[in-house]
Amino acid sequence: MKKNMKKSLTILISAVMLLYTLVGCGTGKEDENKEPVAQSGQQETAEVPAEDNDGASESTDGWIPEKAITIVVPYDAGGNTDIPTRIFAKYMGEYSDVDVNITNIVGAGGRTGVKEVMNANPDGYMLVLQSSGFAMQSALGVADFTYEDLDAVGYFLESSLALVVSADSPYETLDDLIQAARENPGTLKMGSVAGTLPLFAAMYLEKENDVTFNQVDLAGGSKAPELLSNRIDTYIDGFGAVKQYIDSGDFRCLAIFSSTPVEGYENIPTLDALGYENFEYLKQNFGLWAPKGTDKEAIAYINNLIKQASENEDCNSQLKEISYNAMYSTSEEHEAILETIYSDFSEAAAGIVQ
After folding, report:
1. pLDDT (tens place) for every residue of the chain, 354 residues total
2. How far apart are CA 7 and CA 96, in angstroms?
3. Which of 6, 75, 286, 329 has its C-alpha lying 20 to 30 A from 21's C-alpha?
4. Separation CA 299–CA 150 (nearest Å)
5. Which of 266-274's residues contact partners 24+ apart within 8 Å by CB, and which partners?
6. What domains can be seen in the chain, in order of their start residue?
7. Angle 296-310/82-94 helices, nearest 10 degrees?
8. Where are the alpha helices (DSSP H) in the chain?
9. Between the CA atoms of 232, 234, 238 and 243, what dihedral angle is there, to the nearest 10 degrees?
10. pTM, 2 dp
11. CA distances to 83, 124, 336 from 120, in Å
């Protein structure tokens, strides 16, 4: 988009120069007409062909960035959260005159990166990825900040949890699994990691069905090998993390924590289709936070980048390949959803927080 715009402006300038030469105009007017075009950041929308301006940000008033925007991903580079965020940021950059970069600041379950951004200048140039993990950490008394300590920018990414068993498991459906847990309280081994979204998902199933799993803490280890070796009976993880094992036939997916089927996997039932309710707080939704007090016009500008990237077909296609979906919310909607999620996690954690 940017290269096409520059090419169009170059052709336009050349045409103007040729015209003035033919009619015998002096160089003074030629220089006068070239000067506004050469200034970076100015938009000559009346002169740029419409097709070359399709990718430009829809917002031309208010805050305009003068340097790259940085999104802090508070998790490891190359991980299941980092990769889709990088894809989305690339497309955000296509609708801005500046780059949208990713930097990884890890530590303390993501809290180190959040704290870095909380202490940053609220000028719109530094943001941080917001995940459900921070609502859980707050509910468990681990995080000393909440959504109220930052400014919501908007949601941009969503995915779902999935419950899997090994392909040779006797459990063909989620009902089979629940029935086994009901008949053998506390014996069916559910792989989990303390303080994570899958643990809360397992707790949700326990509460909704009045059953008890034997929660096997797999902190520091991979869940897949544990299930492949039958050391656990089942576990819950992001669909993107278990997809390869479903595709290979090693795992059987009994349910997806969503109201909407995963494209290409419509045969796997959603919790909604199975009659479950009030599980929305268990969605793997990701948004952006800005330092508290960030210019509202800067937030509006970035939110508009999210909107345009979320509507980009190529962006959506690349995300779906790794079992994520682009999404969009206004900053106001983002904050309202966060308020509900924090409340839901606090309620869910009430039974385990002493």
Report:
1. 444 443 443 434 344 333 333 334 333 333 333 333 333 333 333 333 333 334 444 444 689 999 999 999 999 999 889 999 999 999 999 999 999 999 999 999 899 999 999 999 999 999 999 999 899 999 999 999 999 999 999 999 999 999 999 999 999 999 999 999 999 999 999 998 877 899 999 999 999 999 999 999 987 668 999 999 999 999 999 998 999 999 999 999 999 999 999 989 999 999 999 999 999 999 999 999 999 999 999 999 999 999 999 999 999 999 999 999 999 999 999 999 999 999 999 999 986 654
2. 17
3. 6
4. 12
5. 268/162, 269/174, 274/174, 274/175
6. 2-53 (no CATH), 69-159+285-349 (3.40.190.150), 161-281 (3.40.190.10)
7. 100
8. 2-23, 27-38, 82-94, 111-118, 133-139, 174-183, 197-209, 223-228, 239-248, 296-310, 313-321, 331-349
9. 100
10. 0.79
11. 24, 10, 24
Alpha carbon distance 243, 322 (integer Å):
9
